Amino acid sequence: MSTASQRIGRVVILGIFVTDLTFRAARMPLIGETIAGTAFAMGPGGKGSNQAVAAARVGADVVFCTRLGNDAFAAIARATWAAEGITARASVIDGVSTGAAHIFVDDTSGMNAIIVASGAAGTMDASDADAIEADIAAANVFVTQLEQPLPAARRGLELARRHGVITVFNPAPAFALDDDIFPLCDYITPNETEATTLTGVPITNADDARRAADVLLAKGVGTVIVTLGEGGALLHSATQSVLVPAYHCGRVVETAGAGDGFTGGFAAALAHGDDAVAALRFGCALAGISVTRAGTAPSMPSLEEVNRVLAEPAGLPQAS
Protein backbone atom coordinates (compact mmCIF):
# COMPACT_ATOMS: atom_id res chain seq x y z
CA MET A 1 0.00 0.00 0.00
CA SER A 2 1.65 3.19 -1.09
CA THR A 3 -0.49 6.21 -0.24
CA ALA A 4 -3.52 6.83 1.94
CA SER A 5 -5.42 8.22 -1.03
CA GLN A 6 -5.27 4.86 -2.79
CA ARG A 7 -7.82 2.23 -1.84
CA ILE A 8 -6.48 -1.09 -3.00
CA GLY A 9 -8.27 -4.32 -2.18
CA ARG A 10 -11.87 -4.68 -1.04
CA VAL A 11 -12.76 -5.77 2.48
CA VAL A 12 -16.38 -6.60 3.37
CA ILE A 13 -17.16 -6.63 7.09
CA LEU A 14 -20.34 -7.84 8.78
CA GLY A 15 -20.68 -6.75 12.39
CA ILE A 16 -22.09 -4.17 14.74
CA PHE A 17 -21.85 -0.45 15.42
CA VAL A 18 -22.26 0.86 18.94
CA THR A 19 -21.69 4.25 20.48
CA ASP A 20 -18.87 3.95 23.01
CA LEU A 21 -19.45 5.62 26.37
CA THR A 22 -15.98 5.64 27.92
CA PHE A 23 -15.28 6.38 31.57
CA ARG A 24 -11.74 6.74 32.94
CA ALA A 25 -11.04 6.19 36.64
CA ALA A 26 -8.34 4.94 39.00
CA ARG A 27 -10.19 1.64 39.50
CA MET A 28 -13.47 -0.16 38.93
CA PRO A 29 -16.17 0.58 41.52
CA LEU A 30 -17.47 -2.23 43.69
CA ILE A 31 -21.12 -3.26 43.55
CA GLY A 32 -23.10 -0.61 45.43
CA GLU A 33 -20.22 1.87 45.34
CA THR A 34 -19.93 5.20 43.52
CA ILE A 35 -16.49 6.60 42.70
CA ALA A 36 -15.31 9.75 40.93
CA GLY A 37 -14.10 9.37 37.36
CA THR A 38 -11.39 11.45 35.74
CA ALA A 39 -12.80 11.72 32.21
CA PHE A 40 -15.70 10.77 29.94
CA ALA A 41 -15.90 10.52 26.16
CA MET A 42 -18.53 9.43 23.66
CA GLY A 43 -17.64 8.18 20.20
CA PRO A 44 -18.08 5.51 17.53
CA GLY A 45 -17.36 1.87 18.35
CA GLY A 46 -18.46 -1.74 17.89
CA LYS A 47 -16.03 -4.43 16.73
CA GLY A 48 -17.20 -4.59 13.14
CA SER A 49 -17.37 -0.84 12.69
CA ASN A 50 -13.98 -0.34 14.38
CA GLN A 51 -12.43 -2.91 12.05
CA ALA A 52 -14.02 -1.15 9.08
CA VAL A 53 -12.52 2.20 10.15
CA ALA A 54 -9.10 0.61 10.71
CA ALA A 55 -9.12 -1.03 7.27
CA ALA A 56 -10.37 2.10 5.50
CA ARG A 57 -7.76 4.38 7.06
CA VAL A 58 -4.94 2.21 5.73
CA GLY A 59 -6.22 2.07 2.18
CA ALA A 60 -8.81 -0.67 1.84
CA ASP A 61 -12.09 -0.23 -0.05
CA VAL A 62 -14.50 -1.17 2.75
CA VAL A 63 -18.14 -2.27 2.74
CA PHE A 64 -19.74 -2.59 6.18
CA CYS A 65 -23.02 -4.40 6.91
CA THR A 66 -25.04 -3.93 10.11
CA ARG A 67 -28.37 -2.83 11.54
CA LEU A 68 -29.13 0.49 13.27
CA GLY A 69 -31.97 2.00 15.24
CA ASN A 70 -33.70 5.21 14.19
CA ASP A 71 -31.98 7.49 16.69
CA ALA A 72 -29.12 9.91 17.39
CA PHE A 73 -26.56 7.11 17.79
CA ALA A 74 -27.36 5.98 14.24
CA ALA A 75 -26.50 9.47 13.04
CA ILE A 76 -23.07 9.11 14.68
CA ALA A 77 -22.60 5.84 12.80
CA ARG A 78 -23.46 7.28 9.41
CA ALA A 79 -21.27 10.35 9.95
CA THR A 80 -18.36 8.10 10.95
CA TRP A 81 -18.63 5.90 7.86
CA ALA A 82 -19.06 8.87 5.53
CA ALA A 83 -15.96 10.52 6.94
CA GLU A 84 -13.90 7.36 6.39
CA GLY A 85 -15.21 6.58 2.89
CA ILE A 86 -16.86 3.36 4.05
CA THR A 87 -19.79 2.02 2.01
CA ALA A 88 -22.56 1.26 4.50
CA ARG A 89 -25.17 -1.45 4.10
CA ALA A 90 -27.13 -0.56 7.24
CA SER A 91 -30.81 -1.37 7.55
CA VAL A 92 -32.89 0.61 10.08
CA ILE A 93 -34.96 -1.22 12.68
CA ASP A 94 -37.75 0.92 14.13
CA GLY A 95 -38.47 0.59 17.82
CA VAL A 96 -35.00 -0.75 18.71
CA SER A 97 -32.12 1.48 19.75
CA THR A 98 -28.73 1.55 18.11
CA GLY A 99 -26.19 -0.33 20.23
CA ALA A 100 -24.05 1.16 22.98
CA ALA A 101 -21.01 0.10 24.99
CA HIS A 102 -19.88 1.01 28.48
CA ILE A 103 -16.07 1.11 28.56
CA PHE A 104 -14.11 1.44 31.78
CA VAL A 105 -10.48 2.48 31.27
CA ASP A 106 -7.93 2.18 34.07
CA ASP A 107 -6.15 5.53 34.32
CA THR A 108 -2.83 3.95 35.24
CA SER A 109 -2.50 1.01 32.84
CA GLY A 110 -4.90 1.88 30.02
CA MET A 111 -6.47 -1.57 30.38
CA ASN A 112 -10.22 -1.81 29.92
CA ALA A 113 -13.43 -3.60 30.81
CA ILE A 114 -16.39 -3.42 28.45
CA ILE A 115 -20.13 -4.08 28.50
CA VAL A 116 -21.74 -4.17 25.04
CA ALA A 117 -25.46 -3.92 24.30
CA SER A 118 -25.80 -4.67 20.58
CA GLY A 119 -29.21 -3.04 20.20
CA ALA A 120 -30.57 -3.17 16.65
CA ALA A 121 -27.50 -5.09 15.44
CA GLY A 122 -28.47 -7.81 17.91
CA THR A 123 -31.43 -8.62 15.65
CA MET A 124 -29.24 -9.48 12.64
CA ASP A 125 -29.69 -12.87 11.01
CA ALA A 126 -28.64 -14.81 7.92
CA SER A 127 -30.72 -12.55 5.69
CA ASP A 128 -28.30 -9.67 6.33
CA ALA A 129 -25.48 -11.68 4.80
CA ASP A 130 -27.69 -12.81 1.92
CA ALA A 131 -28.50 -9.16 1.18
CA ILE A 132 -24.80 -8.37 0.61
CA GLU A 133 -23.87 -11.52 -1.30
CA ALA A 134 -22.87 -9.46 -4.34
CA ASP A 135 -20.56 -7.34 -2.16
CA ILE A 136 -19.02 -10.45 -0.64
CA ALA A 137 -18.54 -12.06 -4.05
CA ALA A 138 -16.64 -8.96 -5.23
CA ALA A 139 -14.42 -8.78 -2.14
CA ASN A 140 -10.86 -9.88 -1.56
CA VAL A 141 -11.46 -10.51 2.15
CA PHE A 142 -14.57 -11.06 4.29
CA VAL A 143 -14.47 -10.36 8.05
CA THR A 144 -16.97 -11.07 10.80
CA GLN A 145 -17.12 -11.44 14.59
CA LEU A 146 -19.58 -12.59 17.29
CA GLU A 147 -21.10 -9.38 18.68
CA GLN A 148 -24.05 -9.92 16.31
CA PRO A 149 -25.94 -13.26 16.34
CA LEU A 150 -24.00 -16.29 15.15
CA PRO A 151 -26.35 -17.16 12.23
CA ALA A 152 -25.46 -13.88 10.51
CA ALA A 153 -21.72 -14.49 10.92
CA ARG A 154 -21.97 -18.10 9.80
CA ARG A 155 -23.93 -17.20 6.68
CA GLY A 156 -21.40 -14.55 5.75
CA LEU A 157 -18.57 -17.06 6.08
CA GLU A 158 -20.51 -19.59 4.00
CA LEU A 159 -21.10 -17.08 1.21
CA ALA A 160 -17.47 -15.98 1.21
CA ARG A 161 -16.38 -19.60 0.99
CA ARG A 162 -18.84 -20.17 -1.90
CA HIS A 163 -17.30 -17.29 -3.83
CA GLY A 164 -13.67 -18.11 -3.07
CA VAL A 165 -13.17 -15.04 -0.86
CA ILE A 166 -10.59 -15.09 1.97
CA THR A 167 -12.34 -15.35 5.33
CA VAL A 168 -11.17 -13.77 8.59
CA PHE A 169 -13.16 -14.74 11.68
CA ASN A 170 -12.64 -12.74 14.87
CA PRO A 171 -14.40 -14.92 17.50
CA ALA A 172 -15.15 -12.16 19.98
CA PRO A 173 -16.78 -12.23 22.39
CA ALA A 174 -15.94 -15.94 22.49
CA PHE A 175 -18.30 -18.76 23.43
CA ALA A 176 -18.51 -22.45 22.62
CA LEU A 177 -19.05 -22.99 18.89
CA ASP A 178 -20.10 -26.00 16.84
CA ASP A 179 -17.11 -27.49 15.07
CA ASP A 180 -18.66 -27.07 11.62
CA ILE A 181 -17.91 -23.31 11.60
CA PHE A 182 -14.14 -23.76 11.77
CA PRO A 183 -13.59 -25.16 8.25
CA LEU A 184 -15.16 -21.92 6.96
CA CYS A 185 -12.25 -19.90 8.43
CA ASP A 186 -9.13 -19.24 6.40
CA TYR A 187 -7.93 -17.18 9.37
CA ILE A 188 -9.22 -17.01 12.94
CA THR A 189 -7.99 -14.20 15.23
CA PRO A 190 -8.75 -14.83 18.92
CA ASN A 191 -6.88 -13.22 21.79
CA GLU A 192 -5.52 -15.40 24.62
CA THR A 193 -8.80 -15.47 26.56
CA GLU A 194 -10.89 -16.21 23.48
CA ALA A 195 -8.51 -18.95 22.33
CA THR A 196 -8.77 -20.58 25.76
CA THR A 197 -12.57 -20.43 25.61
CA LEU A 198 -12.59 -22.08 22.18
CA THR A 199 -10.04 -24.79 22.98
CA GLY A 200 -9.85 -25.29 26.74
CA VAL A 201 -6.08 -24.67 26.64
CA PRO A 202 -4.91 -22.09 29.22
CA ILE A 203 -2.54 -19.58 27.60
CA THR A 204 0.26 -17.83 29.45
CA ASN A 205 2.93 -17.77 26.71
CA ALA A 206 3.53 -18.40 23.01
CA ASP A 207 4.01 -22.15 23.44
CA ASP A 208 0.58 -22.39 25.09
CA ALA A 209 -0.83 -20.38 22.18
CA ARG A 210 0.68 -22.90 19.74
CA ARG A 211 -1.01 -25.76 21.61
CA ALA A 212 -4.35 -23.96 21.48
CA ALA A 213 -3.81 -23.19 17.81
CA ASP A 214 -3.18 -26.87 17.08
CA VAL A 215 -6.63 -27.65 18.52
CA LEU A 216 -8.21 -25.14 16.12
CA LEU A 217 -6.21 -26.44 13.16
CA ALA A 218 -7.50 -29.93 13.93
CA LYS A 219 -11.05 -28.54 13.78
CA GLY A 220 -10.45 -27.29 10.23
CA VAL A 221 -9.17 -23.69 10.54
CA GLY A 222 -6.66 -22.78 7.83
CA THR A 223 -4.41 -20.50 9.90
CA VAL A 224 -4.71 -19.45 13.55
CA ILE A 225 -3.57 -16.05 14.79
CA VAL A 226 -3.53 -15.64 18.58
CA THR A 227 -3.06 -12.04 19.66
CA LEU A 228 -1.02 -11.86 22.86
CA GLY A 229 -1.22 -8.20 23.88
CA GLU A 230 2.23 -7.02 24.91
CA GLY A 231 3.55 -10.42 23.75
CA GLY A 232 2.73 -9.65 20.11
CA ALA A 233 0.85 -12.07 17.87
CA LEU A 234 1.40 -15.69 16.90
CA LEU A 235 0.59 -16.97 13.40
CA HIS A 236 0.33 -20.78 13.43
CA SER A 237 -0.58 -23.07 10.54
CA ALA A 238 0.26 -26.55 9.32
CA THR A 239 3.38 -25.19 7.59
CA GLN A 240 4.69 -22.36 9.77
CA SER A 241 4.63 -20.83 13.24
CA VAL A 242 5.74 -17.20 13.49
CA LEU A 243 5.69 -14.91 16.51
CA VAL A 244 5.72 -11.19 15.69
CA PRO A 245 6.64 -9.03 18.72
CA ALA A 246 4.42 -6.16 19.73
CA TYR A 247 5.35 -2.71 18.40
CA HIS A 248 5.90 -0.25 21.24
CA CYS A 249 4.95 3.14 19.84
CA GLY A 250 4.64 5.22 22.99
CA ARG A 251 2.88 5.36 26.33
CA VAL A 252 -0.20 3.12 26.50
CA VAL A 253 -3.31 5.29 26.86
CA GLU A 254 -6.13 2.83 26.08
CA THR A 255 -6.17 -0.75 24.82
CA ALA A 256 -9.86 -1.05 23.90
CA GLY A 257 -9.33 -0.66 20.14
CA ALA A 258 -6.18 -2.75 19.76
CA GLY A 259 -7.78 -6.06 18.81
CA ASP A 260 -10.10 -4.44 16.29
CA GLY A 261 -7.23 -2.42 14.87
CA PHE A 262 -5.18 -5.58 14.44
CA THR A 263 -7.97 -7.47 12.67
CA GLY A 264 -8.87 -4.53 10.41
CA GLY A 265 -5.24 -3.92 9.50
CA PHE A 266 -4.54 -7.61 8.92
CA ALA A 267 -7.58 -7.91 6.63
CA ALA A 268 -6.61 -4.75 4.69
CA ALA A 269 -3.09 -6.06 4.14
CA LEU A 270 -4.39 -9.43 2.94
CA ALA A 271 -6.77 -7.64 0.56
CA HIS A 272 -3.83 -5.65 -0.77
CA GLY A 273 -2.07 -8.94 -1.59
CA ASP A 274 0.42 -9.16 1.28
CA ASP A 275 1.36 -12.65 2.47
CA ALA A 276 0.14 -13.75 5.89
CA VAL A 277 3.31 -12.87 7.83
CA ALA A 278 3.57 -9.42 6.25
CA ALA A 279 -0.13 -8.86 7.03
CA LEU A 280 0.52 -10.00 10.60
CA ARG A 281 3.28 -7.41 11.01
CA PHE A 282 1.04 -4.73 9.48
CA GLY A 283 -1.77 -5.54 11.92
CA CYS A 284 0.61 -5.53 14.89
CA ALA A 285 2.03 -2.15 13.89
CA LEU A 286 -1.45 -0.68 13.53
CA ALA A 287 -2.48 -2.03 16.93
CA GLY A 288 0.73 -0.71 18.49
CA ILE A 289 -0.14 2.81 17.39
CA SER A 290 -3.80 2.56 18.41
CA VAL A 291 -3.06 1.87 22.09
CA THR A 292 -1.25 5.21 22.38
CA ARG A 293 -4.53 7.04 21.74
CA ALA A 294 -7.90 7.28 23.41
CA GLY A 295 -11.02 5.72 21.91
CA THR A 296 -11.61 2.73 19.68
CA ALA A 297 -12.42 3.88 16.13
CA PRO A 298 -10.83 7.32 16.76
CA SER A 299 -7.54 5.63 17.74
CA MET A 300 -6.98 4.00 14.35
CA PRO A 301 -3.92 5.37 12.51
CA SER A 302 -3.36 6.35 8.90
CA LEU A 303 -1.43 4.34 6.34
CA GLU A 304 1.52 6.75 6.53
CA GLU A 305 1.74 6.26 10.30
CA VAL A 306 1.73 2.47 10.02
CA ASN A 307 4.32 2.55 7.25
CA ARG A 308 6.61 4.74 9.39
CA VAL A 309 6.46 2.20 12.23
CA LEU A 310 7.12 -0.69 9.85
CA ALA A 311 10.14 1.14 8.44
CA GLU A 312 11.78 1.38 11.86
CA PRO A 313 14.04 -1.43 13.14
CA ALA A 314 11.77 -3.66 15.19
CA GLY A 315 13.44 -7.06 15.21
CA LEU A 316 12.68 -9.98 12.97
CA PRO A 317 9.69 -12.29 13.42
CA GLN A 318 10.54 -15.36 15.46
CA ALA A 319 9.87 -18.64 13.59
CA SER A 320 9.90 -22.10 15.06
Automatic annotation (TrEMBL):
It is found in: Cytoplasm. Activated by a monovalent cation that binds near, but not in, the active site. The most likely occupant of the site in vivo is potassium. Ion binding induces a conformational change that may alter substrate affinity. It is an enzyme of class 2 (transferase). Its main location: cytoplasm. GO terms for molecular function: ribokinase activity. Residues 10-302 form the Carbohydrate kinase PfkB domain. It comes from the Bacteria. Substrate binds at V18, T19, D20, G46, K47, G48, S49, N50, E147, D260. SUPFAM superfamilies: Ribokinase-like. K(+) binds at A256, S290, R293, G295, S299. Keywords: ATP-binding, Carbohydrate metabolism, Cytoplasm, Kinase, Magnesium, Metal-binding, Nucleotide-binding, Potassium, Transferase. This is Ribokinase. The gene is rbsK_1.
